[in-house]
Amino acid sequence: MARHLAQLNIAWMRGSIDDPVMADFVGAIDSVHKLAGRSPGFVRIVPDNGYQPWGDPKALPNLTVWEDINSLRDFTYRSAHGNLFSKRDKWFVSPGRAHMALWWFDDTGDGPDYDDAIRRLDHLQQNGPSPEAFTFGQPYDVDGVPLGMPSENRMKTDVD
């Protein structure tokens, strides 16, 4: 059984998914998913099936699985996704709370699930980074050992 990295992020939309303010973002979703599928280290996207975190219709969840943290970081910030990410303020509001969590799990091919992912995000919000849920700025290896990351790799999206 492989140990993989799970990544949850929640973005709070400026309007509903069909609001004109979201049109450019919605139009880019398929191409970003295709890019992820071609990216080194990508394993899969976990379908959200209409999941609404905390019952909030403007909270847009994204749950993905990766082989390692470097592959996820490269996709997030150094690929065409990074260009889209840099425009996020057009479509999303700052949540004022933890909105991204990473964690390692034993991948049997059917996880992780959104309820556990939200639980981990809430744990990160309440307790800070740990092997249970961490950030790019304070990552952990597959054995739960903190990894030292150069300061230039710390992203403003981290909670720490």
From TrEMBL:
Superkingdom of the organism of origin: Bacteria
A Pfam family assignment: DUF3291
Domain DUF3291: start-end pairs: 5-138
InterPro entries: Dimeric_a/b-barrel, DUF3291
Protein name: DUF3291 domain-containing protein
Organism this protein belongs to: Maricaulis maris (strain MCS10) (Caulobacter maris)
